[in-house]
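Per reviewer request, we include the raw input and output of the structure prediction for the construct analysed in the revised manuscript.
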Amino acid sequence: MYEEIYELCQNTEKVMGMFSKELLELDRNTVQYMIDVMQDKIDEKDAALQKKDIALQEKEAELQALRKQLAELKNETA
């Protein structure tokens, strides 16, 4: 076994090729992880934005109702 390892270490090109393949795989995994983290953040912000949009629509409906009431009060006093 030691002899195999020694022979493998003697062939630096083969050893570097092994490390290059492993580093390439690690880079791919790191990039995928970073993409997943960014997508999670985007999803969280999208959910928060949707909640704010719903709240804004509710406030707009409330404002419209108050404007209608105000117009009716103006018509009654006129």
